[in-house]
Amino acid sequence: MVIQSTVGMLKDCFFHFCPHCFIIISFMQFQLQPPCSMVLPIAVEDVKREVKILEALKGHENVVQFYNAFEDDSYEYIVMELCEGGELLDRILANVTSSSNLCLPSSIKKDSRYSEKDATVVVRQMLKVAAECHLRGLVHHNMKPENFPFKSTKEDSPLKTTDFGLSNFIRPGKRFQDIVGSAYYVAPEVLKRKSRPESDVWSIGVITYILL
After folding, report:
1. DSSP secondary structure string, 69-88?
2. Which of 44, 74, 153, 203 is the most buried (most CB within 10 A)?
3. Do β-strands 168-169 and 138-139 pair in parallel, antiparallel, or remain unpaired?
4. What is the pLDDT of residues 66-109, one digit of tens each?
5. Does the keyword Hydrolase apply (predicted)?
6. The CATH classification of domain 7-81, taken from the options 3.30.200.20, 3.40.50.300, 3.40.50.2300, 1.10.357.10
7. Would you tell me the crossing angle of helices 198-211 and 116-135 to the nearest 10 degrees?
8. pTM, to two decimals
């Protein structure tokens, strides 16, 4: 029997996949990434690369934990650690009480609500992820507040990094020529089609500015 619900339960080998749900297995919660269409060959390669990257970063305290990947004739399903604390963007917006004319994403209004001490805790975790990626020959390519959820709703919850769909492996001596990422956070070198791993650090710098 398959229960049509936003919550799936693995029991007696029967289960139900849904694009926006989590699966409960022996009272352990997981999140299921929205299924990726496997119709186009390039989509197949993109998903396989993302899974390979998640496996390479498995075990890092600030990267969403990867558990497994499944596929059928049409989709690839990625099962990951469930993060219930909301995105970093949510906490930024929760601190907003006034606006300004500074050039920021329309969803974010500048307000000095993060102290330097609090911002340091957040930024240090993002830099640790960037360092781990670069150490393993990877570049994230899409660091932004929406891609940094918190593990739990606790104030001191660890930050997690998600969305490695645009991430790629570094080729020695080569620069990335694709324009990827989110407009407000991409480094100038990305727009010039000659970016390197340092573009992740630029994105973190933009986030730091927003926090402060």
Report:
1. EEE-SSEEEEEEE---S-BH
2. 203
3. antiparallel
4. 988 887 777 777 888 889 899 999 988 887 644 444 455 555 55
5. no
6. 3.30.200.20
7. 170
8. 0.74
Phi-psi region of 42 (alpha: psi -120 to 50; beta: other; left: phi over 0): alpha
CATH class in words for 88-211? mainly alpha
Task: Please report where in the chains the tokens 């650690």 appear, as a residue.
Answer: 81
Q: What are the residue ranges of CATH 1.10.510.10 in the chain?
A: 88-211
- The closest of 69, 53, 5 to 162, measured between CA atoms, is 53
Cα–Cα distance measured from residue 159 to residue 150, given in angstroms and rounded to the nearest whole number:
5
